[in-house]
Amino acid sequence: MRNVTATSGQTGEIGGNVMRALPKALTLLEEEGISLNMVSEYSQRDESLSKALAAAFRMMHNGRVDVVVPEQPKLLSIIAPPTNLGAIPGKKTAECFTIGWAFRDPDFDKYLAKDQPDADACVISVCAVGKDYWTFIEAVHALPGAPETSGVVGLGNWLIQKGHTLTLPQIEDLKERTERGEDTGLCTDGYGNLLFFVETGDSKNPVSVGYVGCDGRDWDAYVGRLGHGRRWDAGYRLILRNVDTSKL
User: Fold this and answer.
1) Which long-range contacts (CB under 8 A, 24 or more apart) does 9-17 make?
2) Where does residue 106 rank: exposed (0-12), middle (13-18), buried (19+ CB within 10 A)?
3) Using H for helix, E for strand and C for coil, what is the string for the chain?
4) Contact, 211 vs 219, CB < 8 A?
5) Which distant-in-sequence residues (6+ apart) come within 8 Å of 27 by Cβ?
6) For residues 205 and 85, is the Cβ–Cβ distance under 8 A?
7) Do 214 and 188 touch, CB atoms closer than 8 A?
8) Which of 46, 197, 244, 25 is nearest to 131 (CA)?
9) Strands 76-78, 91-92: parallel, antiparallel or unpaired by DSSP?
10) Left (φ > 0), alpha (ψ -120 to 50) or beta: where does 95 sit?
11) Is the dihedral of CA 59, 25, 226, 161 positive or negative?
């Protein structure tokens, strides 16, 4: 836990700074699609958030307050041994996820380039997501060396430059290996299914996020935009290529 103490002489200054910062904070919340009602709702569910909010308000009214900021859990943690993938040839995007898949999102053909490139041999890692209500952007920010920007162009280009994206044929290969009984980190019980970053060839949205899952029998594949504002539950898994797992 980290304690921040405000003396009586500092309280007025801190309170003034808080009041001046509120309009900007509210604007940032609105840009993220978060209303004050949502903050209130989340605080009712999350005891640590509720205490932090209460401490912040006390700081504005009392002469001396210890504001306790709870330590945040790690967003990403490695849960499966690194997997070596050999070189995998590219193919038409329209031909991916067509054999052995119960559902294929038609947006793959809308969001991605027509061709999936050849993929060199690489090492992939599967991470668990350790908190509820996370977004794709937050997952990127949890990676070592990620830029502070929240823009999908900057973050997408950074993911590509660092080699963290995968191709659809690589995911197909992982599915086949999973079905053969290999420990690839993919779930087959309908829980904790897998998300991955994939290049699009679109300069305005350079990376999208793919999703594959199996309910024990059937496999499904979906795709969404990197900037999609949906907040996901803990337990989903994120697969990454060429990431320094020691820094997560």
Assistant:
1) 11/59, 11/60, 11/62, 11/63, 11/64, 11/65, 14/59, 14/60, 15/59, 15/60
2) exposed
3) CEEEEECHHHHHHHHHHHHHHHHHHHHHHHHCCCCHHHHHHHHHHCHHHHHHHHHHHHHHHCCCEEEEECCCCCCEEECCCCEEECCECCEEHHHCCCCCCCEECCHHHHHCCCEECCECCEEEEEEEECCCCECHHHHHHCCCCCCCCCCHHHHHHHHHHCCCCCCHHHHHHHHHHHHCCCCCCCCCCCCCCEEEEEECCCCCCCEEEEEEEECCCCEEEEEEECCCCCCECCCCEEEEECCCHHHC
4) no
5) none
6) no
7) yes
8) 46
9) unpaired
10) alpha
11) negative
Q: Largest alpha-carbon pair distance within the chain?
A: 69
Beta bridge partners of 103: 220
Kindly report, residue by residue over 94-143, the tens digit of the pLDDT: 999 999 999 999 999 999 999 999 999 999 988 888 778 888 999 999 89
Tokens 């209130």 sit at which residue?
40
Contact 68, 52 (CB under 8 A): yes
What's the pLDDT at 106? Answer: 97
Do residues 198 and 209 make contact, with C-beta atoms less than 8 angstroms apart? Answer: yes
13 has a pLDDT exceeding 90? no
Which are the contacts of 225, defined by CB distance < 8 A and separation ≥ 6?
111, 152, 205, 208, 209
Model confidence, pTM: 0.69
